[in-house]
Amino acid sequence: MNYPMGIKKYNNQIINYSHRGMNLEDDINQTNEYYRSKDIAYIYKKPTPIKVTKVDFRKDRTSTIKEAFYEEPSTTDYNGIYKGYYIDFEAKQTKNKTAFPLANIHKHQIKHLKNITRHGGIGFIVVRFDLLNETYLLKDDDLFSFIENNERKSIPIKYFHDKGYLIKEGYNPRLDYLKIVDEFLEVKNNGKN
Fold first, then answer.
1. Kind and range of the H or E element at 135?
2. HEC profile for 28-89?
């Protein structure tokens, strides 16, 4: 039987699918909250731009959005500032054990990341392979290189092993991705000397 909010019931067992795929996002949100609380970085989840067209205003001064639509395609999931650098990245999860399907990242998001890099910002994607329980950071240049030099419709896990950075899970911060950003900031800054 199908219930509202993605809840399904099978053999008297309730399975809730409403928050499926949110684990990576929750981990990143927790990590960003830790960074802000320790004054390390200010990185936030970007809201999806919507235009509200119909609202139900009630007498008790509450209101409910009845109709809305996406104004434009969203760019990436997160942005902010760290050590004077603009940070912008997309977070994705996959159940695939062997590859990350490129259909999961849209052309306008890739274009956005290219623009960020062109203007001196730091862009990347964070990909979690759910069934392997592995999370990788892949720099935007390595993402662009793969797309431009391959006809595959997915990035093999081996590419993440070779070019990506495994993000180790911890307690606080949950996914310390800025530790990896520090590595390529050091390379970038040493290249300027």
1. strand 134-139
2. HHHHHHHHHHCCCCEEEECCCCEEEEEEEECCCCCEEEEEEEECCCCCCCEEEEECCEEEEE
pLDDT of the residue at 80: 97
Question: pTM of the predicted model, to two decimals?
Answer: 0.77
- Quote the Cα angle for 21-23-26, to 5°: 120
Q: Tokens 């390529």 belong to which residue?
A: 184
Q: Domain count for the chain, please give it.
A: 1
DSSP lists the bridge partners of residue 92 as 127
Give the torsion sign (CA, 80, 82, 83, 86): negative
Predicted confidence (pLDDT) per residue in 41-53, tens digit: 999 998 665 566 6
CB 30 within 8 A of CB 50: no
Pairing of strands 165-166, 134-139: antiparallel
Distances (CA, A) of 171 to 21, 30, 92, 168: 20, 10, 21, 10
For residue 75, what are the domain limits? 19-192
Mean pLDDT along residues 65-90: 81
Tell me, what CATH number does 146's domain have? 3.40.1350.10
Element (H, E) at 105: none
Q: Is residue 14 part of a domain?
A: no
Q: Each residue of 127-183: pLDDT tens digit? A: 999 999 999 999 999 999 999 999 999 999 999 999 999 999 998 999 999 999 999
**How far is 172 from 35, CA to CA, in rounded Å?**
9
